Amino acid sequence: MEKILIVGASGNTGKRVIEILNNSQSFEPVAMIRKEEQKEIFDDMDVKWVLADLEEKVDHALKGIDKVIFAAGSGGKTGTDKTIAIDQDGAIKMIDAAKKAKVKKFVMLSAMGADEPSKNKKLEVYLGAKKKADEHLRESGLDYTILRPGALTDDMGLAKVKLAEKLNEEGEISRDDVAFLLVMSLADPLVKNKTFEALEGKESIKNAIIDLSK
Fold first, then answer.
1. Residues with catalytic annotation?
2. Considering only CA atoms, which of 140, 152, 161 is closest in space to residue 212?
3. Residue extents of the structural domains in the chain
4. Which of 28, 87, 142, 146 is deepest in the core (most CB within 10 A)?
5. What is the chain's mean pLDDT, rounded?
């Protein structure tokens, strides 16, 4: 069973990822938490956790880890300094630590629009930070998948999506469906070394991700 470190495990999307992995026969989740008081959530779920902060040293968090899902993020609503510290510098630090630890795959939760941050003045700093982290991952030599969803909602997931390397349209997608896409991306042959965008759509998640992997 592969051990999966979830960075941003206590966030809305990260928690959904943990729930899916906790019911998996192939993967064992390890929640990366920033504060001691967050451990109770994962103790109650019988999920292992490790204490680490993206703004400090993180190498110890990768011990014994096979793959990483990076689902941490400032959400674009925090100040510039925090956004750069988490979405850019924190992600880059985690990518470097993962490479050092020889992890088999790094799955990054990015954001639609990260390829052209200047087109969205409201979120330019956030998308720019995501872009730099994505570029660093692509150049790292690690096997990777970069998922760029549209606007995230808390609606119930329908497991129906529209995926493409570039969708050329705006839209929404539920955190449930994004969590499933992140978990499916852990499978070695699927969307390997690919960057893709995701919105809610009409194709099943499984079929859509297999089609994109061809």
1. 126
2. 161
3. 2-213
4. 87
5. 95
Beta bridge partners of 69: 6, 107
pLDDT in tens, 169-204: 999 999 999 999 999 999 999 999 999 999 999 999
Chain-centre distance of CA 50, in angstroms?
A: 17
Single out the residue of 132, 48, 128, 125 nearest to residue 95, CA to CA.
132
Q: How far apart are CA 72 and CA 75, in angstroms?
A: 9
Provide the residue count of the chain.
Answer: 214
What proportion of the chain, given as a percentage, has pLDDT over 70?
98
Cα–Cα separations (whole angstroms), residue 79 to 76, 122, 157? 8, 12, 30
What phi and psi values does residue 117 have, to the nearest 5 degrees? -60, -35
Judged by DSSP in three states, 188 sits in coil
Cα–Cα dist 123/55, whole Å: 22
Q: What whole-number distance in Å separates Cα of residue 151 and Cα of residue 199?
A: 8
At which residue do the structure tokens 């705006």 appear? 170
- CB within 8 A of 164, min separation 6: which ones? 196, 197, 212
CB 145 within 8 A of CB 125: no
